[in-house]
Structures are given as structure tokens and as C-alpha cells.
Design brief:
Lyase 2-enoyl-coa Hydratase, Chain  A, domain 2; four-stranded mixed beta sheet; 10 strands
């Protein structure tokens, strides 16, 4: 396993944890974290023992986006990231990297600016009571693009537009985010967040890894195309599972009233036309 300077990567049973670990900087992404995020996601994705990945942060912040201090003082360090941004070749979230294992974002503190990438690109988002979401891009003369575009595909457009245009002058509460469908659950008391995320991940990990991968590919693929094309793509993915041993093991285990023994993931990690 790799050693990281800005992240913590843990495994608890069948659940992998990717934890932002720059609490003194609000877990902001500097050049080191940008590079390490790609490695950490791919490490957990390649581990056959990990079926679900939880993403959270250490300290009072979940994620506060690009490290503007480094950006101001050392532009050369962020030049690679700038090119990736311009060319739509970002490589630091699960969606950027075509991670087809289920991903839970467990938002432990404030989520600001580029931190919204990790909310927009997760499969499931839960948040601790009291956390807030804010997008200050326009308040510092920057454009809202990637994060807002993805959120607008999965959340009410007006709410995303309001957050983008009001900038740092208003924050979205966790409860309001739940009402809007950005967050599926608010955890109270907040210190139960990690335990609850682990419990949720363990429930998900009981399911067929191959079926979950194909399901995730089909549903994310639906965001890339119109209804008819999405259904055709989904049909190909669905039929691609026919003959897989999990399709026999699932009904057999149900009939025998026991937990299924799923086959490990094999073959290509993606078959759908999703991702940047």
C-alpha cells in the first residue's frame, strides 16, 4: 500500500476509506493532494477486498477546493492542474477516474467551492448535522463550471444556480441540501457520521459486486445521453450480466435462506460510455 502525505487510506472489512488529511488548510487541494487523489482512488478500486468506498475529511472541513494560497504563491506547482481543467481531463474524483465501485461521500464539515466535485461525483451523499455547503467561485472572480454542471444533472437547477450566483454570501444547510436531494440523509448527532457511513457501506457491500458495477455504469451513463440512448445503453449493460455466476447465486441463496457468496470482480472496470 502506498504512503500518502495529504490523505489517509484505510480499510475496514469490505469498506475502503479515502480521507482528506489537511485539516489545518480546510483540506484544500494542493498539487500534492491532486496527484495523490488519483493514486488513492485507483488503489482502492484495484483492491478486490474493497467493495465500497467512503470519502470524508479530517478536522472541521470536508473539502474546501483548490488551495488558493498555493495558487497565489506557486503557480508553477498548479500548472498541471490548470491544463487538466482547461482540457477537461481532471483526475481527482471517482467519476473522473471511472471508479465503478459504489462511492459514499460522508460530508463531515464545510464543503466549499471545488469541494463540491466530491459531492457531485459521489453515488450517495450523507452529511453530519450542522455542516454547510457554499460555492464562492463568483465572489472571487472565478467561474462555476464542473461542479455546478454535474450537480444540475442530479439536483434542482434553481437551487444549484442560486448557490452558484450568490457565492460566499449564503450557505446551504445540510437539512436544506437534504430537502433538495443533494444529500440523502443528515446524521445527528454529527459524531455518528463515520459509524453510520460504515454501516451503510456494509449494507451495500452485501450485494453482488458485478451487478453493482453494471448498475452504476447504466445509471451514470443515463446522465450522458437522452432517454432512448440511455435505455439502449442500459440494455447492453444488463444483457452483459447474463450468464454471470452471481445471477444464479443470488436466487439460489435467497431460496436457501442464506447470505450469497458473490464472485469477485474480474474483467474490464468499465463498459459504459461515461466519464469525461
Amino acid at each position: 500500500m502506498a504512503t500518502y502525505r495529504t490523505l489517509e487510506v484505510e480499510r475496514h472489512g469490505r469498506v475502503g476509506w479515502l480521507i482528506f488529511n489537511r485539516p489545518a488548510a480546510g483540506n484544500a487541494m494542493n498539487a500534492t493532494m491532486m496527484a495523490e487523489l488519483e493514486d488513492a482512488w485507483l488503489e482502492l478500486d484495484a483492491d478486490p477486498a474493497v467493495r465500497v468506498i467512503v470519502n470524508t475529511g479530517n478536522g472541521p472541513a470536508f473539502q474546501s477546493g483548490v488551495d488558493v494560497v498555493q495558487l497565489a504563491r506557486d503557480k508553477d506547482a498548479m500548472r498541471k492542474f490548470s491544463r487538466q481543467t482547461r482540457d477537461a481531463q481532471l483526475r481527482f474524483t471517482s467519476w473522473h477516474l471511472n471508479i465503478w465501485k459504489p462511492v459514499i461521500a460522508a460530508v463531515n464539515g464545510v464543503c466549499a467551492g471545488g469541494g463540491l466535485h466530491f459531492v457531485a461525483d459521489a453515488d450517495i451523499v450523507i452529511a453530519a448535522a450542522g455542516v454547510t455547503f457554499v460555492d464562492p467561485h463568483v465572489s472571487v472572480g472565478q467561474v462555476v463550471a464542473y461542479e455546478g454542471i454535474t450537480l444540475a444533472r442530479t439536483s434542482p437547477m434553481e437551487a444549484v444556480m442560486r448557490m452558484a450566483l450568490v457565492g460566499r454570501h449564503e450557505r446551504l444547510t445540510a437539512e436544506r441540501a437534504r430537502q433538495l436531494g443533494i444529500v440523502s440523509e443528515v446524521i445527528d448527532p454529527p459524531d455518528r457520521l463515520r459509524a453510520h457511513a460504515q454501516e451503510l457501506a456494509e449494507k451495500i457491500a452485501k450485494n453482488s459486486p458485478a451487478a453493482m458495477r453494471a448498475t452504476k455504469q447504466a445509471l451514470w451513463g443515463a446522465l450522458e445521453a437522452g432517454l432512448t440512448d440511455s435505455c439502449r445503453n442500459g440494455a447492453q449493460i444488463l444483457a452483459g450480466m447474463w450468464g454471470h455466476p452471481d445471477q444464479e447465486e443470488g436466487p439460489r441463496a435467497f431460496a436457501e435462506k442464506r447470505e450469497p457468496e458473490w464472485a469477485p470482480l474480474t474483467g474490464p472496470t468499465a463498459v459504459a460510455t461515461t466519464g469525461p
